[in-house]
Amino acid sequence: MDRYIIKGGNPLVGEVEIGGAKNAALGIIAASIMTDETVTIENLPDVNDTNVLLEAMQGIGVRVMRVDRHTVKINAGKVFSHCIEYDYIKKIRASYYLLGALLGKYKHAEVALPGGCKIGSRPIDQHIKGFKALGAKVNLSHGNIITTADHLRSTHLYFDVVSVGATINVMMAAAMSDGTTVMENVAKEPHVVDIANFLNSMGARVRGAGTNVIRITGVPKLHGTTYSIIPDQIEAGTFMFAAAATQGDVTVTNVIPKHLEATIYKLTELGCEIEEFDDAVRVVSKGNLKATTVKTLPYPGFPTDMQPQMGVTLALGSGTSLITESIFENRFKYLDELARMGADVKVDGTTATIRGVDHLSGANVNALDLRAGAALCIAGLAADGVTIVDDIHYIKRGYEDFDKKIRDLGGIMEEVSGEESLSKVRKRIG
Ligand code: UD1
What we know:
There is one protein chain. The chain is of the alpha/beta class and about 425 residues long. About 35% of the residues lie in helices and about 25% in strands. Strand 12 (about 205) and strand 13 (about 215) form a beta hairpin. The chain is globular, with a radius of gyration of 22 Å. It starts with a strand and ends with a helix.
């Protein structure tokens, strides 16, 4: 089993370069199947989620050529199947973006139905509502969603909940429909905008991404393009909270500060000093973190994907903080692990009460999910003694070279595989 072993106590100091946004990359990779011409994607993060999606696409005939670690050429001119197996969906939910992409291009897609996951039940009724509104038939058979259409027609659609995934999936299908589709109450996340920009660079006509209403005029054909993915606001925010929790001084580079506004605002409330540059943000924490309240909301609200990182930081604040999680019902599980490190936490439904303690102590903890895992690493870096984080395959889904980036900032964190290497490293780091 692969684990991280972390010795806490060192403030993180220095600069860290942020990679391309994983969640944008997933939509962009899927959308690149919508043209027979070659698409070049730059600033692609080398993380497990994007690699599994590329593998799923290769499985149906897509050619994937690695130019370098962060650049890939994709050619979907010889797709021979429109069916994505459960094995891929199991590894990565976002393979369901191939539903919208294949439906748009081929008017047919079969993708295994994703189940719930560790952070919540995650229904996809809004995706299905959108496909149906475009005139597609949607059936469920043997655990697969099968969607077909003779042609996709334009529609006026109002989403009942703000959903990133449904906005992206239906936007992709509508990009190759007849006429102009209007989607209201859509998600405004930066990666929704990035995927819309990518589609437009392939010749689609998507307007309004980043606002509540997106208008899509369908086109019969999309063409090849070269596109660079936006920086990952969640990776950036993770390092910013790591700076706060370890009383460090970290500059995240290659970021779009506008996308980090909610995070910057909360870090300021905690008492951190923030300096913004054109494409970098510096966070300086001198300790004495203050307590605050936070509620997760769709963008531009505070991201649910940053809630655990903020939670572990608040565990070291002075006073009582309240977190309300309004997006995913199971997203407080990491607090049980954090309690084992000495945090004073209480969860009541969608609200967590965190009473700050003056120190955390290292322990064996389980990553549980992607962001919870990253947050527990932050806790380990701020704690006294040694922390071992198990199940780091979750963390590798979304963070490239996480341990190396932490080490470059002065943190003590290493990946170990097996008991022997664990005890060797444990002896070395003391
Ligand atoms: C995306 C992100 C994920 C992030 C989340 C919220 C990707 C690949 N993943 O997930 O990292 O945590 O946005 O910012 O970009 N819902 C429904 N019906 C639906 C769809 C969603 O009720 O058909 C509900 C969900 O249960 C949830 C809320 O809507 O409560 C938001 O979910 P959604 O925005 O769809 O999240 P994802 O796209 O799955």
